[in-house]
């Protein structure tokens, strides 16, 4: 499924922003404009599907830190509102999911700064009017049964739990399960540890790895899967050769553990282990694992992937992004004008410039409907 549109209201610097999305979504802007908050709002949608929304917001410092702190209209509810619209092109079905989280009422159960889920709703549209399949208000859940009628679900949820995670895993509601599975396939790569003890620098268990974990801990297994199971590393080899002046990736046939190294043309008899590589080199390899893995995630989000990379690595990175975009929807946040230009040229898209408008994050040239005029793109 393709993420066709998103909305975020009252989340950090996102006062109210709705965007239509395409196959490649490129966001450029200065530090402090809120680029990462756009990215983070989609992570929270995935957290709702996983059932970890309360934990994710707690990690941010709780609702006190996550809520929009600017001026509000009188009597406006203090709530974070997130929406995601997914299109299943094969079945011509549009899924729309809404979730609102607010503060704990004074006399309610729950901890003071954890989010309290106020509303959830999932609807589907197949060309006619939208049909609601899940509707939650407080702890009570209404769900569409096999006969097409809304009925109350016998189980109530805690105010910090999501109905999407509870029912999407139950096996009785195919539409809810389909939407949840699609969102759980998204991959967010916010950055990789590159210190001496980073999992990127360690061998890992030799288990077939179709996709890179968000921590990068199975990077060696991802490379081994490409080299020894798919037996096709053409795109990976090309990217590494271009990024590292002719270097070659070496992936031994794994036994109990999978490992890898680089062979540089200046030292053809010497295998450089991951612990010997620079931060930029190991980070580029992790990005290669994320973008060129055996199985393509439906949605890949990269947040400032240019960090620690030498400028000469940015054109090969853009080439990998273009390759990944053939089968994955891409969300790229960067403040590198060079990377943005390279991606624009290779993917045939225009960047969206993130700005501050009266203290709130906004997209330059975007209409309130979420569309960007061609002349302003």
UniProtKB/TrEMBL annotation:
One MF term in the entry's GO annotations: ATP hydrolysis activity
Pfam family, one: AAA_21
Biological process terms in GO annotation: DNA synthesis involved in DNA repair; double-strand break repair
Domain ATPase AAA-type core span(s) in chain numbering: 270-339
Highest taxon listed in the record's lineage: Bacteria
Listed InterPro entries: ATPase_AAA_core (IPR003959), P-loop_NTPase (IPR027417), RecF-like (IPR014555)
Protein's UniProt name: Predicted ATPase
Organism lineage string: Bacteria, Pseudomonadati, Pseudomonadota, Alphaproteobacteria, Hyphomicrobiales
């Amino acid at each position: 499924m393709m993420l066709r549109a998103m909305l975020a209201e009252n989340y950090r610097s996102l006062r109210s922003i709705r965007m239509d999305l395409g196959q490649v979504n490129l966001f450029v802007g200065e530090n402090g404009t809120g680029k990462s908050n756009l990215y983070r709002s989609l992570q929270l949608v995935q957290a709702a599907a996983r059932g970890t929304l309360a934990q994710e917001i707690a990690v941010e410092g709780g609702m006190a830190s996550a809520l929009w702190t600017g001026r509000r209209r009188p009597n406006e509810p203090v709530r974070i509102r997130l929406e995601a619209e997914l299109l299943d092109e094969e079945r011509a079905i549009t899924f729309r999911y809404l979730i609102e989280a607010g503060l704990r009422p004074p006399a309610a159960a729950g901890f003071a700064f954890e989010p309290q889920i106020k509303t959830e709703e999932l609807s589907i549209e197949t060309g006619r009017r939208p049909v609601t399949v899940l509707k939650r208000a407080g702890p009570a859940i209404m769900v569409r049964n096999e006969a097409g009628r809304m009925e109350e679900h016998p189980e109530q949820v805690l105010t910090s739990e999501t109905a999407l995670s509870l029912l999407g895993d139950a096996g009785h509601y195919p539409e809810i399960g389909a939407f949840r599975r699609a969102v759980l396939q998204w991959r967010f790569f916010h950055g990789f540890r590159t210190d001496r003890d980073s999992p990127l620098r360690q061998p890992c268990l030799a288990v077939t790895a179709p996709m890179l974990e968000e921590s990068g801990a199975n990077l060696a297994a991802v490379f081994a899967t490409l080299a020894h199971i798919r037996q096709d590393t053409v795109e990976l080899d090309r990217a590494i050769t271009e990024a590292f002046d002719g270097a070659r990736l070496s992936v031994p046939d794994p036994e109990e553990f999978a490992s890898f190294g680089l062979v540089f043309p200046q030292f053809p008899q010497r295998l450089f282990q991951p612990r010997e590589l620079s931060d930029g080199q190991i980070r580029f390899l992790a990005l290669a694992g994320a973008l060129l893995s055996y199985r393509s995630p439906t949605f890949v989000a990269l947040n400032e992937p240019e960090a620690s990379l030498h400028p000469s690595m940015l054109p090969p990175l853009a080439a990998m992004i273009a390759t990944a975009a053939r089968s994955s929807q891409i969300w790229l946040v960067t403040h590198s004008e060079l990377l943005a230009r390279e991606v624009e040229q290779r993917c045939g898209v225009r960047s969206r410039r993130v700005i501050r408008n009266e203290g709130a994050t906004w997209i330059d040239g975007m209409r309130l409907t979420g569309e960007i005029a061609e002349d302003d793109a």
